[in-house]
Amino acid sequence: MTSNAYSIDLSSITNTLTDDVSSWEGKSIISVTQMTTSGILRLFQTAQSMRTLVRTKGGDDRLKHKVLASVFYEASTRTSCSFQAAMMRLGGTFLHVDGGKGGNTSASKKGESLEDTIRCLECYTDVTVLRHPTTGSVQQVALGDGTVKPVINAGDGVGEHPTQALLDFFTIWDELGVNLDVSNGDNTADKSHNGQLVVVLLGDLKHGRTVHSLAKLLARSALKHELVLRYCSPASLEMPSHVKEYVEQCTNVKQEEYTDMFDAVKGANVLYVTRVQKERFDSTEDYEKVKGAYVVDTNLMKSAPSGMIVMHPLPRVDEIATEVDSDPRACYFRQMENGMFVRMAILVLILGTP
Predict the structure, then answer these.
(1) Chain segment 16-31, per-residue pLDDT in tens
(2) H/E element holding 242?
(3) Helix and strand tally (H, E) in the chain?
(4) Count of alpha carbons within 13 Å of 353, Cβ hemisphere only?
(5) Which residue in 57, 101, 110, 302 is the catalytic one?
(6) Active site residue 259
(7) Cβ distance 234 to 290 under 8 Å?
(8) Catalytic residue selected from 16, 62, 78, 278
(9) 131 is annotated as an active-site residue
(10) Model confidence, pTM
């Protein structure tokens, strides 16, 4: 967590997004703690309908005349493009603001506060997707007095990335047929997962906001069976204590720590791989010490369970060999496509057009 990170109390919005579609309308999406399990199921079912819509008709016009502000103070390809594509598939349009160094906005260069920038953009748009390098910054903007339209957290430093966690959970739910312990929570997929759900989180767990959000989201969701979270990383990049402490408070969850990935994948259902994030290190020397610590290749896949899926938020560097791409268990590109469907679902729910 950076020294200028914000500490935000989210208790007022915890468990407020439910299976009632009206609970989503006009709401910001800033943390995975906002959703109840029934709310997650509502989102997943909506995402399924978005997938059917795209594959049969390409999209529709339910968000015609709606405008999305895509505001990124850190580089993004998949998140920004999938949100933009999601908006366009639904008949809307977008404005993109590159707030990073050398970007296309003068706001931060002139000293304007983040809150004022978003408040100004709200004058032209209906919803804002915001990524910022400072942990807690997006929550600060969304919960502040000045913001009146929905804000979606596209990543706040090493904090959270809730829409990534939601698309990741959707992929696990969809690929494995995971059952949720709520009304109508039995998965209708051809295959249904029974028994423990064993999820291995591999790589840079210290800086990876995707794994922080996913661990919390899986742990707080009511699954039909026990969840086992296995953390596998170099000692210097282990899962932060605040995430492990959060998970510890959840029921029906077990946490395990590994350094050997061959041991970690034994009996696993999901292998979630993250890259070592060079941009988060204070020095190149520190990065070089852990770069390439784990490489998922055909050798590992031969020893992994036949039903284990391999996921990655992408981009990858060298942590998954390209030879793995042809393995049917490699689902990271299906995972990316799911990102658009889940983000379409979020947009229709918060803009009141499900």
Answers:
(1) 999 999 999 999 999 9
(2) helix 241-248
(3) 11, 9
(4) 16
(5) 110
(6) no
(7) yes
(8) 78
(9) yes
(10) 0.92
